[in-house]
From TrEMBL:
One of its GO terms (cellular component) is proton-transporting V-type ATPase, V0 domain. Residues 35-119 form a coiled coil. Essential component of the vacuolar proton pump (V-ATPase), a multimeric enzyme that catalyzes the translocation of protons across the membranes. Required for assembly and activity of the V-ATPase. This is V-type proton ATPase subunit a.
Length: 132
């Protein structure tokens, strides 16, 4: 193992880091541990990634709740390019919104079904009372 320090141009940093990450042979150390997370240069990008991860976890729990199979690739996929990240973010946002809307509608349908079943039961009971 060798300790190295890399200086990367900001334009090429994403490509270089993604290539190194895909190789899986590099470990990164924080050289500024005393810097607040909000003062870091790429805090917005990290927040975007964390938000996408949250949406993916939500989608995964919903898929597992419905007992649907999940495709698990044997090897890790390549890191997406910055433009692909924008498309992925939009897709995850759309799926997240649609799934929340579906859950809301399903809850409303179940509530309506229970109310109507109760009313039907009450009508059946009152019908037998009036028939007697």
């Amino acid at each position: 193992m060798t300790l190295c320090q890399l200086f990367l141009q900001p334009d090429a940093a994403y490509s270089c880091i993604s290539e190194l990450g895909e190789l899986g042979i590099v470990q990164f150390r924080d050289l500024n541990p005393n810097v607040n997370a909000f003062q870091r240069k790429y805090v917005n990008e990290v927040r975007r990634c964390e938000e996408m991860e949250r949406k993916l976890r939500f989608l995964e729990t919903e898929i597992k709740k419905d007992e649907l199979p999940i495709y698990d690739p044997e090897d890790n996929p390549d890191a997406p390019k910055p433009r692909e990240m924008i498309d992925l973010e939009a897709t995850f946002e759309k799926l997240d919104h649609e799934l929340k809307e579906i859950n809301t509608n399903a809850d409303a349908l179940l509530r309506n079904f229970n109310e109507l079943t109760e009313l039907k039961h009450n009508l059946t009971m009152t019908q037998s009372f009036f028939d007697d």
